[in-house]
Amino acid sequence: MHCHLDAPANAISVCRDAAQVVVAGRSIFKIYAIEEEQFVEKLNLRVGRKPSLNLSCADVVWHQMDENLLATAATNGVVVTWNLGRPSRNKQDQLFTEHKRTVNKVCFHPTEAHVLLSGSQDGFMKCFDLRRKDSVSTFSGQSESVRDVQFSIRDYFTFASTFENGNVQLWDIRRPDRCERMFTAHNGPVFCCDWHPEDRGWLATGGRDKMVKVWDMTTHRAKEVHCVQTIASVARVKWRPECRHHLATCSMMVDHNIYVWDVRRPFVPAAMFEEHRDVTTGIAWRHPHDPSFLLSGSKDSTLCQHLFRDASQPVERANPEGLCYGLFGDLAFAAKESLVATESGRKPYAGDRRHIFFKRKLDPAEPFAGLASSALSVFEMEPGSGSMSWFVDTAERYALAGRPLAELCDHNAKVARELGRNQVAQTWTMLRIIYCSPGLVPTPNLNHSVGKGSSCGLPLMNSFNLKDMAPGLGSETRLDRSKGDTRSDTVLLDSSATLITNEDNEETEGSDVPADYLLGDVEGEEDELYLLDPEHAHPEEPEYVLPQEAFPLRHEIVDTPPGPEHLQDKADSPHVSGSEADAASLAPVDSSFSLISVSHALYDSRLPPDFFTALVCDMLRFYAEQGDVQMAVSVLIVLGERVRKDIDEQTQEHWYTSYIDLLQRFCLWNVSNEVVKLSTSRAISCLNQASTTLHVNCSHCKRPMSSRGWVCDRCHRCASMCAVCHHVVKGLFVWCQGCSHGGHLQHIMKWLEGSSHCPAGCGHLCEYS
Amino acid sequence: MRLATAANEAYTASLAVSELLGCKQCGGGGGPNEELGIRIPRTLGHGPSRFIPEKEILQVGSEDTQMHALFADSFAALGRLDNITLVMVFHPQYLESFLKTQHYLLQMDGPLPLHFRHYIGIMAAARHQCSYLVNLHVNDFLHVGGDPKWLNGLENAPQKLQNLGELNKVLAHRPWLITKEHIEGLLKAEEHSWSLAELVHAVVLLTHYHSLASFTFGCGISPEIHCDGGHTFRPPSVSNYCICDITNGNHSVDEMQVNSAGNVSVSDSFFEVEALMEKMRQLQECRDEEEASQEEMASRFEIEKRESMFVFSSDDEEVTPARDVSRHFEDTSYGYKDFSRHGMHVPTFRVQDYCWEDHGYSLVNRLYPDVGQLIDEKFHIAYNLTYNTMAMHKDVDTSMLRRAIWNYIHCMFGIRYDDYDYGEINQLLDRSFKVYIKTVVCTPEKVTKRMYDSFWRQFKHSEKVHVNLLLIEARMQAELLYALRAITRYMT
Questions:
Q1: Which residue, among A224, A144, A152, has the nearest Cα to A186 in the 3D structure?
Q2: Which of B359, B366, B418 sits opposite A102 (nearest CB)?
Q3: Which residues of B fall within a CB distance of 8 Å from A188?
Q4: Predicted confidence band of residue A532 (pLDDT cuts 50, 70, 90)
Q5: Which compartment or compartments is the protein found in (chain B) (predicted)?
Q6: How many angstroms away from the CA of A209 is the closest CA of chain B?
Q7: Which of the four pLDDT bands, split at 50, 70 and 90, describes residue A453?
Q8: Predicted pLDDT at B9
């Protein structure tokens, strides 16, 4: 239930009997009775002809012993007490004008009837005895401003105060000269604190750094026992009665919700109230022994009573599912336990893959245990089958720039061939043929490529038969492939299809790892076929009778989806099913035409390279689709302007980011940097320019060296001296891990060529590798 | 700018005489370079500031290690040691924070591209016709690869930046008029719209350069040697300024006049300081005794607000901005209008309801991480900076004076502190000082050397620079508060 106030509220406080609540703000000061269904305005304390600043309240507090006694803190620095028992209309009792700046907080002693404490912006806390006209004692925090003061509920003489500079102080009310204890709790102002109602030494603090911290004050040094990270600066914190680990918070800016946290679960709030439309400024539990009612006042001029059982529970909305797949093809997923339990019956089926199953131990002490728990399953690749060494090798050996296009293509083709990736090698060769002047290419090569294209007809048929045997499977596998792991997911397929799936899998495996998959008979031929050396190619020509024969075959299957890529031995690829969609967009006639046109074009009509651009782009998309984003990006870089404009920016960016991500996961930092550098996409190339600062600490005093990287401001020493030339090293510093002496990279390299001992003379036999 | 041109004219006028005479003291004629026909630019010989004699300003080379480190940082970050740095180094503690913030705003990670940042700086400085800052940032803008076409005027810049023009204008002159509609207009402009993070970055840049323009005029920063008006190709000996002048310590003629004028009133101004200190002492003591009534407190704020309206320099002649600067902004007629004169429908801004520490900081830090922290530090240092000295007196608690200055500036922008007695301002700040403050903060382009000289005559130059730091930080905070409040209102 809620009611509308006339003005924004700054603070609220509840009467001892939980039947009334007081709301105070800049231009509001009213008491409401809390009834069954609504709030009823009982008293307006803002009386008088001309409202003065004394009534502009920053804080209000209701005495917990005497239900007639209230105190307010005014923004102009005045502390006012109110006695509801006064017969006149004006209930104002006493006025303390001792503070020079805004008073941020007032607090009554929990058991003593006449003791009032105030904390102000001027850095002072004052203790008033209501029977006297001025303060009894003044405590100086030696700091700018006090944000909150709270009497300890258990210790009669103790109170805590929090400061704008991040400190929390503990005071003994009898000793105004110095604080008992002081520690830094937050980075930036500490806006609020609250003592635990039952646990003697627990103090919760909330600050501008968006944290709520729970401190154990019973130990010698205040110890942080819990820490909750919220999404906005914390304005108020209140322990929930009867629930040892619960506390409610609201924030000062941006976020309007009230959260109730279980401090042991600091990441997801236990409950959330979303009623307010502007920041919540005051929260109070209605009754000190009833955990179900929470009252709140807000800048949106409403007063609300929240029922705990109505709160939304973010945990329910949480998605305890997650999926991640590892560098080498391992897959881990977490899912709701209930889901996993029903399907785990099929587990033994896994056969060739290892399946690890984790389950979190339930902790009965934890209140959330049943709500959002999930089981984690991990599928591992068979050792060996998931080797990605081809990827690493390729990445390291490819040449991407700095040489003429023809050389780059040749080089890359060679690399690919050496790694046994003939399809890729062939692509490079073709790129070279397309984009480099035709005069360089000897005739036989072209024949070969045509021949090769047709030679693929037979294996193609094979893979098709397979596919036809498992109708309806295609779509499934395609889906799987996009997730990046075919095998684990096929588990989910109908068991009747198992046999076929397995076979299919064996092949699809090759799709991720083309190097692994080669049809034996084609392999030998192709390897030689693609050698560019004309001398080698010539003697082999006679062997190409078979291709001639295969040509018609190719035409027969022309209306079936496979083989959209000109000159690629598409047939080898088990990905036919995967690229079905692709193929549909490409007219099959077109692809066969391209086959022919290559051989003719370069010699007869001299088609401009532009002619092939569309095909090359499709080829790139095909590779990317297939998961070989490496190829797509490499070709993109090598060809540069020739194809760039034909592929939209976003796709390019997407490829680049995926490739860079992969490279970085393999720790190929240099390659990834080179790729970033060579990319023309702005979003990518700026990756290199962000966060280029390297922070170093002094090797002597261990403090960060802020101004310059080589001289420490504090101990005035040069951090890194070269052991060879005895000068400061300002760039790359290399050192021996055995004796920790080192110096300029060049100097050390030179030194160790001539001597194996450490240049510093420590006698250590240094190794440089 | 107008001043600089005037000064230049004075020099050219005196050339006719001195050209014939050469330098009276050293008799030096044209140097060898003249014979070679090489035109070598040289400074006009004011030092970094036209208001502060060069000998008062720290010479590069004689600084202590802390300052040296600052210079080194500044040089490393900007590739130059500009005159602003040379003047601000009076207060190295502040300078460090200032440079760190500026460096972060212009060069570190942030939502806006580099050339946008400099362009926004140009836009902001141009609002106050601050050719010094405009020139500096035109160079930087081109250096980071900005399109030179944009420099022909705002209408040549992308629509996105043009949209910012309105906010720039209001923020510079009448920040209290900023509403959430302004913010909404920028955030929802289809393909030209700003993101919240970009907007906060832009707002911080705008306020930074508005207030930096105030500093530039307030301290009479001279143009850099490589910028227009910062150099002359005349050999040194033909001007009335010569090497031997520096060694003798007497500067240009007008400097002498000022000194003599100062000597006349030296006894007056001595009492000025005494009187100010006496007032502070009184206020300190009797604060507890006579407590002003609530009504009176409220009316004092109104009085102060109203009075600030009449405080204005006498020479109100219209300034026509230099052509090269004016093309960077439109609507030249839009200027500061007194808050109180139009304040009928604009409610007073209460700091207790929206302050930098609680609200502004959180918002900035959320949308533009780390900057909130940096600006917060800068505000703190500026507000708390003190050496406990006043003119020739030592061990003085100046917090009251500093607070009066700070609150007076906020008062001019209609920002009120509930817990401040605005009567104090009247006691502590005399008229000539108020004129200076108001001119620097609201219409910095109208500051003259006479204004600078006529307030606080016995105070040191470093103290006057200190006042300027307070002025610019208070102004920046005031603008930021209004802008951020509008953003907050938009978000809720």
A1: A224
A2: B418
A3: 361, 376
A4: very low
A5: Cytoplasm
A6: 9
A7: very low
A8: 40
Using the Cβ of B286 and the Cβ atoms of chain A, whether some distance falls under 8 Å is answered with: no
Among A123-127, A517-521, B36-40, B222-226, the minimum mean pLDDT is found in A517-521
What is the predicted pLDDT for the residue at B427?
Answer: 82
Pairing of strands A181-184, A190-195: unpaired
Fold classification of B53-228 is AhpD-like (1.20.1290)
Encoded tokens for A645: 């404009």
* pLDDT tier at A500, thresholds 50, 70, 90: very low
What token pair was written down for A360? 């979190």
Would you state the torsion angle of the CA atoms of residues B336, B340, B343, B344, taken in this order, to the nearest 10 degrees?
-140
Picking from B352, B407, B415 by the largest number of A CB atoms within 10 A of its own CB, the best residue to mutate is B352
Tell whether B370 lies on the interface with A, counting CB pairs under 8 A: no
Q: Please name the residue of chain A whose CA is at the shortest distance from the CA of residue B353.
A: A26
B442 is catalytic: no
* Residue A542 predicted with pLDDT over 60: no
Euclidean distance between the first and the last CA atom of chain B, given in angstroms as a whole number: 43
Q: What is the pLDDT of residue A373?
A: 63
Reported as a pLDDT band with limits 50, 70 and 90, residue B27 is: very low
Long-range interactions of B309-318: CB distance < 8 A, separation 24+ = B309/B338, B309/B340, B309/B341, B311/B431, B311/B434, B311/B435, B311/B438, B312/B435, B312/B438, B312/B439, B313/B435, B313/B439, B313/B446, B313/B448, B313/B451, B315/B446, B315/B448
* pLDDT tens sequence across B282-314: 776 665 444 555 566 667 777 776 666 555 544
pLDDT tens column, A621-656: 888 888 788 888 888 888 887 777 778 888 888 888
C-beta separation of B390 from B382 below 8 A: no
Q: Residue A449 pLDDT > 50, yes or no? A: no
Looking at the predicted structure, is the pLDDT value of residue A576 above 90? no
Q: Which own/partner pairs from B296-300 qualify as long-range (CB within 8 Å, at least 24 positions apart)?
A: B297/A53, B297/A76, B297/B421, B297/B422, B298/A52, B298/A53, B300/B421, B300/B422, B300/B423
- The size of the A-B interface in CB pairs under 8 A is 72
Classify strands A733-735 and A742-744 as parallel, antiparallel or unpaired: antiparallel
Q: Are A39 and A32 in contact (CB under 8 A)?
A: yes
Quickly list H helices, B219-322: 243-248, 253-264, 266-286, 294-310
The DSSP annotation for B372-420 comes to: HHHHHHHHHHHHH---SEETTEES---HHHHHHHHHHHHHHTTEE-TT-
DSSP type of residue A159: E
Q: Where are the domains of chain B?
A: 53-228, 272-314+336-491
Name chain B contacts of A58, Cβ cutoff 8 Å. 352
The amino acid at A737: Q
B406, B416, B403, B386: which is closest to A122 by C-alpha? B403
Write down the catalytic residue from B23, B26, B130, B442: B130
Give the separation between CA B15 and CA B29, rounded to whole angstroms: 13
